[in-house]
Specification:
about 55 residues; 2 helices
Length: about 55
């Protein structure tokens, strides 16, 4: 996959969640998100020029 313009820009991810069964959540109006690990996050942002973020 070739790099496009956005993957070359420095990115600050201003909001994301790590969701783990080690820290159970309560459903909100019946919704309960799937687990999302730090490794899942790394896979999601692979190829971007990530410069920082807020967890």
């Amino acid at each position: 996959m070739g790099m496009n313009k956005i993957t070359r820009l420095p990115i600050f991810d201003c909001h994301f969640h790590i969701i783990s069964k080690n820290y159970p959540l309560e459903s909100n109006n019946g919704y309960l998100p799937d687990e999302f690990s730090i490794n899942d996050y790394y896979e999601r942002v692979y190829g971007y020029t990530l410069k920082g973020g807020a967890v």
